[in-house]
Each structure stands twice: as C-alpha cells, then as structure tokens.
Amino acid sequence: MAKIKMSKKAASIDMTAMCDVAFLLLTFFILTATAKVPEPISVDTPSSTVKTKLPETDLVTITVGKGKENMFVDIKGRELRKKTLELMGQKYGVTFSEEQKEQFALMESFGVPIQNMADIIKMKSADRNKQGLQPGVPYDTIVGSETNQLKDWIYTARQANIELGSDKELNFAIKGDAKLEYPKVKIVMDILQDQKINTFDLVTGLRGENF
C-alpha cells in the first residue's frame, strides 16, 4: 500500500506581541532611568568585594580629594538638604530664599564656603560641576576650630534630621580616592568622632572575588 506523504509547510510564529512587549520594556527603562550626574571632583574609589548598598536617603557623604583637592559634601534627601542649608545660613549669617533652598535640594555634592553657596546654586549643573571651579568646603586640621565648616555641615545635618522628626539616625560615609593618603581621611574621621559619630561607611568600587 502506497504511503501518503504529508505536505511540509514552513512554520511561522507571530512576533507582534513579543515586539510590543520589548518596546514597552525599553520605553519603561528609558523613562525611569536616572542619568549619572557629573561630580565636581573626580575620585577613583578603592576596589572591594563588599556588596552593601548605601541608603538612598538620610545619608551624608563626604568626598575627600587627593593632593590639594579638598572636601565635598553630599546630603541625600530633599527636605534634609533644605533644612541643613537653612541652619547653616543661620549659623553664618547668610540668608537664602525659598527658591534657592529648592534649587539646593536638587543639587549634587558641593564644595564651597557657605558664603559663596548662592553663586553656585544659581549655576546650571554642567557649569557648577566643572572640575576646579569649587575649591572645597573649608576645614581645619584642628577639630575644634571655629572656621571648620565641614564640622558644621555634619553637625547641622544631624540637627536638621532631628528637627524634621526623623526616627532614624543619620548615616555617614567617606568617599576617597584609592591613592589618597591616610592623614587626610583621618581628618574627616576625627571630625566625626569628635561629634560622637563612631559608625560610618567607606565607599568602595565593586570588583570580582577572583582578583
């Protein structure tokens, strides 16, 4: 008996639905992604295998520049930034408008004396983050010095956190270059410890465990 041959037809898959999903995902990631904001100081952090992530808010990061570069401060949390600026202005006799406070709340790390903060606030992000423009937050190797604005930023940030009614302790982190000499980091550590802050993070870059 003769065998009946089945006709072979090329199989086709409708990819329309999958393409729609792919474009939806692409659109979602584009709209929700946050562009990396350029920093006013370039820091190549040391490598580490630690994967602990820093909190998104209630965090003060002190960036220590290598060589003659100075200290920069970054405060996470819009309301915390605004309140800290207000308290620093009161301490140094500098008045900031509500508009300036709102703009400061959207800024990234900064490194200028409080007396020059208004000039930095009114600049565009690309202009204020040009390396060399900001000289750094004034600090003193003598921890108790009255001209130690870095100490005052740390203190007023903690004060602002309390006045805002937060039930969480403010976190602190030190970010330094891999080639940074230890004495400069110790200045920041001494300032923190002078204010009874004995727990803080050191920011590092992630590397493979096999290295």
Please name the defining characteristics of this protein:
alpha/beta; globular; single chain; 211 residues; two-stranded parallel ribbon; four-stranded mixed β-sheet; 6 strands
The SSE string, one letter per element, is HEEEHHHHHEHEE
Q: Please tell me how large the radius of gyration is.
A: 25 Å
Q: So what's the overall shape?
A: globular
Mean pLDDT metric: 81
Q: What's the β-strand tally? A: 6
Structural class: alpha/beta
Strand content: 5-15%
Low-confidence parts lasting 5 or more residues at pLDDT below 50? none
Description of the structure:
This protein is α/β, with parallel strands linked by helices and 211 residues long. It contains seven helices and six strands; from the N terminus they run H-E-E-E-H-H-H-H-H-E-H-E-E. The chain has helices spanning 16-32, 78-92, 98-105, 117-121, 125-128, 149-163, 182-194, and strands at residues 47-48, 59-64, 71-76, 171-176, 201-203, 205-206. The strands form two sheets. The chain has a four-stranded mixed β-sheet with strand order 3-2-4-5. Strand 4 (171-176), helix 7 and strand 5 (201-203) form a beta-alpha-beta unit. The protein starts with 15 loop residues before the first helix and ends in a 5-residue tail after the last strand.
Secondary structure blueprint with pairings:
Elements: H1 16-32, E1 47-48, E2 59-64, E3 71-76, H2 78-92, H3 98-105, H4 117-121, H5 125-128, H6 149-163, E4 171-176, H7 182-194, E5 201-203, E6 205-206
